[in-house]
Amino acid sequence: MFGPCETVAKSLQGDNASVSGALECILVLKERMNRAVDTIFVKAKAFAAAHSLEWPNESRVCRTPSRFRDTAAVEDVADCAAEAKWRREFFEAVDLMNSELDRRFDQAGMSTAARREKVLLDSTRGLVSDSDDVSALQLPMQDFESIALQLKMLGGLTKDQAFHTVNDLGRFMAALHPQTRGLFSEVEKLIHLCLCLPVSTACSERSFSALRRLKTWLRSKVSQCRLTHMALLHVHKDILDDLNLQDVIGEFIHRTPERKSTFGVSK
């Protein structure tokens, strides 16, 4: 049980996690556990028989009273007690896992978010949605006709591309010419709406952990502005590595006349 659950938990904590992918992973996990219910106990019995093992902590066999039995045949209860005990405990664990998965992922909000992602990805494949389908997405934008039209136009722009997540589509839109991007203003709003939904809390938890480490390292009171800037630099190291240090030095020196006279003019 724990192996598949841990694998799914790791996949849900990725930076590229999406609502559609999360729901698909949960469906695969539930199907896997339902199949395991029928096979794991049979495998355990076969393994125990092959290695001459006995069931641990076998409880006392409770036979059915004769007055409640309609036959004089001997009741075969030799293996029923232990099997019923462990099967009951295993079923209880599986039911608990299924109920927790339903509580977390079987929600109206998750279904709505998954439909939004599906409409975007389907439009890139030419599967055009009309305004009625768009209105069912519960969008804050009211111009459903414009959104449906732009989704149809998006299919012609991305016909040679393959997108698996909204992140991929967002990177593609960001690389377009600004004038071309202006044609898909409502689509960009829908992409932003999908990307701002925190499907995984792992990134947020890591950010708060980094903030606690920064406060411990500073050991002093700093302004909120400076703490925010340092937290951004600490968390988004990939963006920091792409900065040109000479440009940063030049901007720092040109901020005040005193710095220009002290450090000189940096080119």
From TrEMBL:
GO MF assignments: protein dimerization activity
InterPro entries: HATC_C_dom (IPR008906), IFN-induced_PKR_regulator (IPR052958)
A Pfam match: Dimer_Tnp_hAT
Residues in HAT C-terminal dimerisation domain copies: 183-238
PANTHER family to which the protein is assigned, alphabetical: 52 KDA REPRESSOR OF THE INHIBITOR OF THE PROTEIN KINASE-LIKE PROTEIN-RELATED, HAT C-TERMINAL DIMERISATION DOMAIN-CONTAINING PROTEIN
Protein name, as recorded: Zinc finger MYM-type protein 1
Organism from which the protein derives: Caligus rogercresseyi
